[in-house]
Amino acid sequence: QVQLVESGGGLVQAGDSLRLSCTGSGRTFSSLVMGWFRQAPGKEREFVSSIRVSGSRTDYSDSVKGRFTISSDNTKNTVYLQMNSLKPEDTAVYYCAADIRTWRSLGQLRTSDAYVFWGQGTQVTVSS
């Protein structure tokens, strides 16, 4: 089993920055693929970013590319999502996800069905 613990959400103004953290346990960290998703009230869960921890290969949705950065620190078993230039439309609950199937394509990793393990979510609210 893989267990995930998230932190870093909060209330900020447009243009501010936040860094979300997701710490995993129960599996060798480098053997995982990790993803960030978000869900706003009344909307479907949407893909934000993914990373292959072993090779640091990353992917981003068009809505966050250039503003968000995903990274990993293997010594801390932690994946980060650095969010800069935040916009009100970024307001959502952000979820960390993990899976052991490291051979999945980037396209597959953009779907929530690709991940078995999920964190509890952390709220990000951006005021205008």
Give me some keywords for this one:
globular, single chain, 11 strands, 4-stranded antiparallel beta sheet, 7-stranded mixed beta sheet
Notes on the structure:
The chain is mostly beta strands. Helices cover 0% and strands 49% of the residues. Strands 2, 4, 5, 6, 9, 10 and 11 form a 7-stranded mixed sheet that branches. It has a 4-stranded antiparallel sheet with strand order 1-3-8-7, with no helix packed on it. A hairpin with a 4-residue loop joins strand 5 and strand 6 (57-60). The radius of gyration is 14 Å and the shape is globular.
The tally of helices reads 0
> Low-confidence parts, pLDDT < 50 over ≥5 residues?
none
Reading the helices and strands in chain order gives EEEEEEEEEEE
Determine the strand fraction and express it as a percent band: over 45%
Cα radius of gyration in angstroms: 14 Å
Secondary structure category: mainly beta
Cα shape: globular
Average of the residue pLDDT scores:
93
- Ends distance: 40 Å
- Please provide the count of β strands: 11
Helix content: under 10%
Instruction: Characterize the quaternary organization of these chains.
Output: single chain
Major sheet attributes: 7 strands, mixed
